[in-house]
Design brief:
Blueprint: H1 3-31, H2 34-55, H3 61-77, H4 81-88, H5 109-118, H6 125-135, H7 141-148, H8 152-169, H9 178-200, H10 210-226, H11 230-244, H12 269-283, H13 290-303, H14 312-325, H15 329-341, H16 345-359, H17 363-375, H18 379-392, H19 396-407
Helix pairs in contact: 1-2, 1-3, 1-5, 2-3, 3-4, 6-9, 9-10, 9-11, 10-11, 11-12, 11-13, 12-13, 13-14, 14-15, 15-16, 16-17, 17-18, 18-19
Length: about 425
């Protein structure tokens, strides 16, 4: 493969990823079977990689992929009588229903139906996210297995069994209502936020995958339109606050810039204002949850005119409330970092000391410990902590950041927002 062909392939994959959800959902609606829809989607992608470098990327990518997938499906299943009857029963695909406007597709309710299907309570919780990343986002088995620390073959077998269970039990392609909706909302929210985090924190190699962040935000907008519950609005506000600061997270050399050192003039002010309106609307319903509380914390960072003007005491209070809902070790670490910035060092030190057994393999834990050692004037402890952070870094950008801290006095914590 030449360098030009490699660039073409990368561009095609990035364009397909943005439209993957809508195309996969449309294929599932047409074919009525998740495995068949996935096979058709893969055939369409192969066709795109073969023809787009020659013919150019089509304007209506969703319609092209669905049409190519259905054509490949028909060719494959017309070879036997059973398959032919199935193919002949398919209704005609309406390309006009998938016309695009602007830079991103207008996701319809079918994408949400696909996510709710992947998060059905009949599916084991540990398989819901993996299935969503594969089916809705088009992540490869390699990418998912790396994120879940699983062998690819094991992951593939789990996903295959899950898809067959969906077909066997007849899990509906629908947005549930009433009590069923309440039970399904939590995993759907988790999936959307994890998709955003995958883009925002760059575990796949890029410091920020802007397209993936926007994709998650678009999915959440659809969720809020269909189900305007306070936690959905809070989740959207949280992602908008964080995404608004993305332009300042990278310096001219492409390195990570911590929150306290970011150029706030680069933040997207209109997006911050939109997030604040959404958050206030959610909070007025007086049913606070983990996403509204995290959005409130992100809002205090985003609305502060400077690092010095940040209301750390209020952030500390919000973390206390958050721990009542979600008292996991990472949230406790967030709380400890907030205490450090609120000049309550002894309280922070006690919490950080207690968390080593649970977070000893988590690089941000050692970054927080390095900051605490710096404030205490313990240089050797600071260096030891940063060396542990370097050893446990999950991405090249994070590794470089900690290495730079080792080369100069003073430790930068990537701020408590990094630990959400």
């Amino acid at each position: 493969m030449t360098a030009k062909q490699g660039e073409d392939s990368k561009l095609i994959h990035s364009r397909i990823q943005l439209r993957y959800s809508a195309a996969q959902a449309a294929l599932l609606r047409q074919l009525g079977d998740l495995e068949k829809a996935e096979d058709a989607m893969q055939d369409a992608i192969v066709k795109a990689l073969e023809t787009w470098p020659r013919d150019g990327i089509p304007e209506n990518i969703v319609a092209w992929l669905v049409t190519a997938g259905l054509n490949a499906f028909r060719d494959r299943y017309r070879k036997d009588q059973t398959g032919k009857r199935y193919v002949d029963s398919l209704r005609e695909f309406d390309e006009k229903a998938y016309e695009l406007t602007g830079d991103l597709p207008e996701f319809d309710d079918d994408v949400l139906r696909l996510i709710f299907l992947c998060c059905h309570p009949a599916i084991a919780p540990e398989n819901q996210l993996a299935l969503t990343l594969k089916t809705v986002m088009g992540f490869s088995l390699h990418e998912i297995s790396r994120a879940f620390l699983l062998n690819e073959k094991t992951l593939e077998q789990r996903l295959t069994r899950t898809k067959r269970k969906i077909a066997k039990t007849g899990i509906a392609f629908e947005i549930p209502q009433g009590e069923r909706l309440e039970k399904r909302l939590i995993p759907v929210q988790q999936v959307i936020y994890l998709i955003f985090n995958e883009g925002y924190y760059g575990s796949s190699g890029e410091l920020i995958d802007h397209a993936l962040c926007r994709h998650a935000i678009t999915l959440c907008r659809s969720l809020c339109r269909v189900i305007p519950e306070p936690e959905n609005l809070g989740l959207l506000a949280l992602m908008l606050f964080q995404d608004a600061r993305a332009p300042a997270r990278i310096d001219a050399e492409g390195d990570l810039v911590t929150l306290d050192k970011q150029d706030r003039s680069l933040w997207r002010k209109g997006q911050i204002s939109e997030a604040d309106v959404l958050l206030q609307k959610a909070l007025r319903r007086k049913r606070s949850g983990i996403y509204q509380l995290q959005a409130a914390i992100a809002g205090l960072h985003s609305l502060a005119k400077s690092e010095q003007a940040t209301d750390w005491l209020q952030i500390v209070g919000l973390y206390r409330l958050l721990m009542k809902h979600q008292g996991n070790p990472v949230i406790k670490l967030n709380y400890a970092v907030a205490l450090l910035f609120a000049d309550r060092r002894s309280e922070a030190a006690a919490i950080i000391g207690e968390l080593e057994a649970e977070l000893g393999n988590y690089s941000p834990y050692w970054a927080a410990k390095a900051k605490l050692a710096e404030l205490n004037g313990a240089e050797s402890e600071r260096i030891d902590a940063l060396q542990n952070a370097v050893r446990l870094s999950g991405s090249e950008q994070e590794l470089k950041h900690y290495q730079l801290q080792l080369q100069r006095p003073g430790s930068d914590i990537p701020s408590s927002e990094t630990f959400h």
